[in-house]
Amino acid sequence: MAVARFPVEGGHIMMFARAIGDPNPAYHGALTGTPAVAPPTFVWAAEHFDPDSAVRPRPDVPWMGSGSSDTGVPDSVAQGGLHAEQRYDFHRPVREGDILSAVSRTGRTWTKQGRRGGLLTFTQTITEYRDQHGELVVTAVMLGVETEKSVGAP
Amino acid sequence: MTGVRPGDTRELVVVKDLTRSQIVQYAGASGDFNPVHTDERFATRVAGHPSVFAHGMLTMGLAGRILTDWFGVEALRMYDAQFRRPVYPGATLTVLARVESVDPDGTAGLSLVVRDEAGNTVMTGNAVVGTD
Fold first, then answer.
1. In a domain, A21, yes or no
2. Do A100 and A52 form a contact (C-beta atoms < 8 A)?
3. Largest CB tally within 10 Å, which of A37, A104, A144, B117?
4. What CATH number does residue A91 fall under?
5. Phi and psi angles of residue A81, each rounded to the nearest 5 degrees, phi first
6. Coil, helix or strand for A62?
7. Model confidence over A17-52: pLDDT tens digits?
8. Are residues B83 and A85, on separate chains, in Cβ contact within 8 Å?
9. In chain A, how many domains are there?
10. Which positions ≥6 away from B75 have C-beta within 8 Å?
11. Rounded CA gap, A39 and A28, in Å?
């Protein structure tokens, strides 16, 4: 993922907080005019600001989900992986008004024999979220796993 | 928050009877529209799952509330999660957080376990929080 501009907006923080069922007033500043703080996992929503996100339906691009048929991308099963682990190191809290960018790189990769047979391939993706001053705000490490017969993705 | 000690625990039910609509709500808020989470037809017929299931990141987000309720929304220094089992609609998730260490630099280390209504561990995790 490469995201050039991820503006952290109060309304977006509120919607994200609602989705994780968290009524903490610090996340709902949009209702009172108070600048909000973002929940810890909020940077996951940087996906919205990736123009080429593969997990968002886009006009005129075949989508793996169902429409008139079960999938618009018959080989989409092969595209997925599973989300095994996630880690965030917070250099400071993310706040409304931050304009973040995100740059990802591939970390370690290793394989392991799965319990039900088949080789599992683990791959780390390291993402650095920086603010508009270039300061590091959050470092994320995602661990994905792909099976030989990969199914979907969480 | 000062005064936590190793062995201190808190427990919190972070979702009761998880709905498909809440999973859709998370997809919308996060931008992660992978249809295995929101599209029953795709999830079952194409991807071969028993049903749609929650994003791991929804579980991690739900569970994080125990940390921010306890220590405040600006205290978190590190938070990690290991996704152990899929979380399906209907799940009721309970988080148990335990202080494992209190360190001289003013931080505390915690462990987290998230269990479903059947007692299955669906997520484990760790956190470091500032306690000043």
1. yes
2. no
3. A37
4. 3.10.129.10
5. -150, 180
6. coil
7. 999 999 999 999 999 999 999 999 999 999 999 999
8. yes
9. 1
10. B1, B67, B68, B129, B130, B131
11. 11
Task: Read off the pLDDT of residues A83-133 as tens digits, 9 standing for 90 and up.
Answer: 999 999 999 999 999 999 999 999 999 999 988 778 999 999 999 999 999
Nearest chain B CA: its distance from A46 CA (Å): 8
Question: Which residues from chain B sit within 8 angstroms of residue A26, using beta carbons?
Answer: 68, 73
**Is B27:B21 a contact under the CB 8 Å cutoff?**
no
Which residue of chain A has the CA closest to B59?
Answer: A20
How far A138 CA sits from the closest chain B CA (Å)?
Answer: 9
- Segments forming the whole domain that contains residue A85: 2-147
Q: Under an 8 A CB cutoff, do A27 and B77 touch? A: no
Q: Both ends of chain A: CA-CA distance in Å?
A: 17
Placement of tokens 């996100």 in the chain: A53
Q: Kindly state whether residue A154 falls inside one of the protein's structural domains.
A: no
Domain assignment present for A39: yes
Q: Is A90 part of a structural domain of the chain?
A: yes
Instruction: Report how far residue B128's alpha carbon sits from residue A124's, in angstroms, rounded to the nearest whole number.
Output: 21
CA distances from B54 to A121, A143, B58, B60 (A): 22, 17, 6, 10
Q: What is the largest CA-CA distance in chain A?
A: 55
